[in-house]
Automatic annotation (TrEMBL):
GO terms for molecular function: DNA binding; zinc ion binding. Residues 5-39 form the BED-type domain. It holds the Pfam family DDE_Tnp_1_7. Residues 54-65 have a biased composition (Polar residues). InterPro entries: PGBD (IPR029526), RNaseH-like_sf (IPR012337), Znf_BED (IPR003656). Residues 263-624 form the PiggyBac transposable element-derived protein domain. Keywords: Metal-binding, Zinc, Zinc-finger. The gene is PGBD4_31. This is PiggyBac transposable element-derived protein 4.
Length: 852
């Protein structure tokens, strides 16, 4: 049907030009006209529906309605896009509120222009249209600025009644056509107070009234979420902006002069200063007095001195190197396995006393802030951290990670990390140099800080640790627990370069499928994207790895080693940020490895002691790193490493105090010649052997009892202990230097001086036939007798050298006979019976004789 109708009830047939009536705009008679008058054309029409229409809510459109309303443009048509872009440019250029598109007058005006255009809602313009326009303009400006060598910037404050005060930054430059050009590159909404407020018109105090006056705020609460929240920059996957790593602005290495021949103690003293030693000594003595005043005890206490405290910590370092099951085992001398030099340095009871009263802070200090959960050790940590940062400067590459201090006691901030080697303990956030593991900053985690708002735990930790290095171009590497877009942007603005793996669910990461875990990349393939100062890459290894950086060039590449089959390793090309991450993210792990080898692990119910000895070990390792940095190719510890350095450090802490051990305590029984003593059965009730009691003192071995004893001394003794009763060891001397005649002479003179023995009292001194000891005795001019047993042993060995086989056989037969009696109670009974019948002295059977 065609033609212009004379009214809305007539239609002209296009085939026969007949005029048909269409009452009320219905088309039933038109359909019937085609079927009857034009069957050929009717056959080309689509078949009618089998049943009635299911859309009962909307009736059939009438011709009148079609002419009056018109057909609406589809959202993918060119005309709809042209009109929508025009509205978007109007909103952006005129800076009007998004509420404008919801106002009836604005809609009516557009309807007058084009009745077929349907205006989108406010949410579309605020979330989509303006965002797309922003990305387009920003991309064009960035591309043009990339070709500009020089430019200038201006800034000014803007404000209006319908907009918060903001700071505008405009860039000015000469373009390729040699004309002056410029663009706004930043709007910083920070709640600035407008300096021109007094010159403006009157603005109501009530924000709601002010917004309604400016017609800016929509009073419908359900639509507030649709308001524009700021521009989001797209991640580009091509046309990258070139980036480069800025050099570290500080000089790496030691900050204090260290001589090339400095001993381990000299370097350690630069960290563990006199102030720390004085704090340990003062607080330990103060705490001992406070405890003993509250709970009186019979044990004596002598205030600890600085030399004693040095010995105490030196022994603690030794305990980390030589580990025994219990601390008391270091003083056990009865077992060959446990014979150490520790008793020569300090007695067990004195060590236990210092261990008991060891303290770092005055508990009764009125100025003490006990709301700090670390108040018991806070002062010590602060002093130690100052020395860490004052001794050594890192090389510009550090890693941030957590370190666990093992502790299973009850503690409010104890942590449980099931995937860590140390599952229960105290968490310490550590920033360490990537190459050496030197600790330049740390922070003990005690939980959330009450009353303090923060952007996130990881954000706060990294920012706090990096604070001393703001504006220094330090490169910080971290794992996916810390990395986020906001953190890396904040660090970039503060002059810190950062890189780390990132979790897929972090906010503001790219949403494109090829930049997510669902990208479906092949093994060792990667995709890279860039957003202003950030570089993001996705690399497919065994699992998908995502890395975020604020200083790496997205076009740069590196290589990492990977196993491609069997045991073969090949270099795989990866983005530079991922290669650098693998190289520099090992600082804290290296520290944990080195400190863990020789860390002090003695149990204690006081949590702060575990932290104290952890930081003591860290101080020792930091001193080692500082000493190694100045040591040349001939440095003593370059090949031997940290273990030998730590051994010498502990020896230096101990040896100056105890070059010779204190005299042993004599028993109350006077020492007399063995000829004046006689062993016999003098008791009717069994008593504890005196020598066994002294021998097993401080151990879990229970001394034996006997009826025998010394007649002259009236002391219970076993038969085999009798010889120990009539002779005593006056002193043992520690010989740290070479065993020369001069050193041995000095040790012997020290012994007789300690015991106040006159030289004229010495009837004879017997030694072995060593050349050094013989020379020392000759220098002393004491009466000397060679050890007969030694001479006899040499003579027998020389005489029996030709008959070694027969001699060994004779010894074997004797031992077999001895073993036969030892394994049979009946044989031993018959042996004793035979001795009685033959009136021979009864002898006990001894399995092994201590002979030369």
């Amino acid at each position: 049907m065609s033609g212009q109708p004379r009214d809305t009830t007539e239609v002209v047939c296009k085939i026969c030009s007949g005029v048909l009536r269409a009452k009320d705009g219905q088309t039933t008679n038109l359909h019937e006209h085609l079927r009857v008058r034009h069957p050929a054309e009717y056959a080309t029409l689509p078949p009618p529906r089998a049943g009635p229409s299911k859309k009962t809510s909307q009736g059939q459109q009438t011709i009148t309605g079609a002419f009056s309303k018109g057909t609406k443009y589809k959202t993918d048509s060119d005309r709809w896009r042209q009109l929508t872009d025009a509205v978007t440019h109007y909103l952006a250029k005129e800076m009007v509120s998004f509420n404008t598109v919801e106002k009836p007058t604005f809609k009516a005006m557009l309807h007058k222009f084009d009745k077929q255009y349907e205006l989108p809602g406010r949410k579309y313009f605020s979330k989509t249209a303006i965002q797309n326009l922003f990305n387009e303009v920003r991309s064009n400006i960035s591309r043009e600025l990339g070709d500009i060598e020089y430019l200038s910037m201006t800034t000014d404050m803007w404000s209006s009644c319908n907009m918060m005060p903001y700071m505008s930054v405009t860039v000015h430059y000469v373009n390729k056509e040699w004309t002056l050009d410029g663009s706004d590159i930043d709007l910083n909404f920070e709640g600035f107070e407008s300096e021109e407020e007094e010159e403006n018109e009157f603005v109501p105090d009530d924000p709601l009234e002010r917004a309604q006056q400016c017609d800016f705020l929509d009073t419908e609460e359900e639509e507030e979420e649709d308001e524009f929240q700021g521009f989001q920059v797209d991640w580009r996957t091509d046309n990258y902006l070139r980036r480069h790593t800025k050099p570290f602005s500080r000089t790496p290495g030691v900050k204090q002069p260290i001589p090339l021949d400095a001993s381990p103690l000299d370097v350690f003293s630069l960290i563990f200063t006199d102030e720390l030693w004085d704090t340990l000594v003062t607080e330990t003595n103060r705490y001992a007095e406070q405890v003993r005043a509250q709970t009186p005890t019979t044990s004596k206490w002598t205030p600890v001195s600085k030399t004693e405290m040095r010995t105490f910590l030196g022994l603690c370092l030794c305990f980390g190197i030589l580990k025994l099951p219990a601390r008391r085992d270091y003083w056990r001398q009865t077992k060959w396995l446990y014979q150490t030099s520790v008793p020569r340095a300090m007695s067990r009871d004195r060590f236990d006393m210092i261990w008991r009263y060891l303290h770092l802070q005055d508990n009764l200090d009125p100025a003490l802030d006990k709301s700090d959960k670390l108040w018991k050790i806070r002062r010590f940590m602060d002093l130690l951290l100052l020395q860490f940062q004052a001794l050594y400067e890192v090389n510009g590459y550090v890693s941030v990670d957590e370190s666990m201090v093992k502790y299973k006691g009850r503690l409010a901030f104890r942590q449980y990390l099931p995937m860590k080697p140390v599952k229960w303990g105290i968490k310490v956030w550590v920033m360490a140099e990537s190459k050496t593991g030197y600790v330049n900053n740390f922070q003990v985690y005690t939980g959330a800080i009450a009353g303090k708002t923060e952007t996130g735990l990881a954000h706060r930790i990294v920012s706090d640790l990096a604070t001393p290095y703001f504006d220094s171009n330090l490169c910080v590497y971290m794992d996916n627990f810390y990395t986020s877009v906001k953190l890396l942007l904040d660090l970039h603005h503060r002059g810190v370069q950062a890189c780390g793996t990132v979790r897929a669910g972090r906010k503001d990461l790219p949403k494109n499928k090829e930049l997510t875990k669902k990208a479906g990349l092949n093994k060792h393939a990667f995709n890279v994207a860039q957003q202003d100062d950030l570089t993001f890459c996705v690399w497919q290894d065994t699992k998908t790895v995502m890395v975020l950086s604020n200083f790496h060039d997205p076009t740069a590449h590196g290589s990492v080693k990977r196993r491609t089959g069997g045991q073969r390793q090949t270099n795989v090309q990866v983005p530079a940020c991922l290669a650098d991450y693998q190289q520099h993210m090992k600082g804290v792990d290296l520290l944990d490895q080195m400190v863990g080898y020789y860390q002090i692990h003695h149990r204690s119910t006081k949590w702060w002691r575990r932290l104290f000895f952890y930081f003591l070990s860290v101080a020792g390792y930091n001193a080692f790193v500082a000493a190694r940095s100045v040591g040349g190719p001939e440095w003593k510890y370059r090949r031997t490493g940290y273990k030998d350095w730590l051994e010498d450090l502990s020896q230096e802490l101990i040896v100056p105090v105890t070059a010779r051990s204190a005299p042993c305590v004599l028993p109350t029984t006077p020492t007399v010649a063995s000829a004046d003593h006689d062993l016999a059965q003098i008791f009717t009730k069994r008593k504890t052997c005196r020598e066994c009691s002294l021998k097993h003192s401080g151990t879990s071995v229970r001394p034996g009892s006997t009826l025998m004893g010394c007649k002259q001394c009236n002391v219970p003794l076993h038969r085999e202990c009798f010889m120990h009763h009539v002779s005593r060891c006056l002193e043992t001397s520690f010989m740290p230097d070479r065993h020369t005649a001069d050193n041995l002479e000095e040790a012997l003179r020290g012994t007789i001086d300690d015991w106040k023995i006159q030289e004229k009292q010495i009837a004879c001194i017997t030694t072995n036939n060593g050349a050094n000891i013989v020379a020392a005795i000759r220098q002393l001019k004491w009466p000397w007798l060679s050890f007969f047993g030694h001479n006899l042993n040499l003579a027998i060995n020389n005489s029996l050298a030709q008959q070694r086989a027969s001699t060994d056989r004779a010894f074997g037969v004797c031992r077999a006979v001895n073993v036969a009696f030892a394994h049979s109670w009946l044989r031993r009974h018959e042996l004793r019976k035979a001795q009685v019948e033959m009136k021979l002295p009864e002898h006990s059977l001894i399995m092994d004789c201590a002979t030369r």
